[in-house]
Design a protein that fits this description.
By secondary structure, the protein is of the alpha+beta class. Helices cover 15% and strands 43% of the residues.
């Protein structure tokens, strides 16, 4: 399955409620499977969550984290306020076929205005991606960006010039590795 401009799964229309529910279920299943990985493997081998500061000032910054040969790279520029504490979680499924990357502000909605963003997956191909203007915390729900605000490529999720409304609080990506059985 290749990533498409529709941000959906396979040939399902991206705007359908069914696709949204299926995407949400897929993310939950993958994240649950990654959460149980530490029971079988040491946490440092399969999953990792790290904190970093998102810095305003209009300068382009990059933060990355990797597990084995797979890496998630978050590049952004933002304006307004002061540094915000964010987190990046990366995980590799038990069978090495899926790599996930989530980038988010744990406190929910960011008060910074993002002038650009790009998340790149190295070593794997994006199967699913979603971006949010608000991360669900404290009983609140995630608030998804409109699909016209960002574009999903084979290895990237990027803001769309002229359409992105400068609000970003969370990115979620699931990618298929190029793992071959011996």
């Amino acid at each position: 399955m290749a990533a498409s401009g529709a941000h959906g799964i396979g040939s399902l229309p991206c705007g359908s409620t069914f696709c949204s529910m299926l995407s949400s279920l897929l993310i939950k299943l993958v994240l649950v499977s990654l959460c149980f990985a530490p029971c079988v493997f040491p946490a440092s081998d399969r999953t990792r969550t790290v904190e970093f500061n998102v810095k305003p000032g209009g300068v382009v910054h990059t933060f990355s984290e990797k597990i084995g040969k797979y890496e998630c790279v978050f590049t952004y520029a933002s304006q307004g306020g002061t540094n915000e504490q964010w987190q990046m979680s990366v995980g590799l499924s038990d069978d090495d076929k899926l790599f996930s990357c989530s980038i988010w502000r744990p406190l929910g909605k960011s008060y910074l205005f993002f002038t650009e963003f790009k998340a790149e997956i190295k070593g794997a191909k994006v199967e699913y991606a979603s971006a949010y203007s608000q991360a669900g915390v404290g009983g609140q729900n995630d608030v998804a960006l409109k699909e016209e605000e960002y574009v999903v490529g084979d290895t990237t999720v990027t803001h769309k010039d002229g359409k992105f409304r400068a609000e970003l609080s969370k990115l979620t990506i699931i990618a298929r590795t190029r793992h071959d059985e011996l």
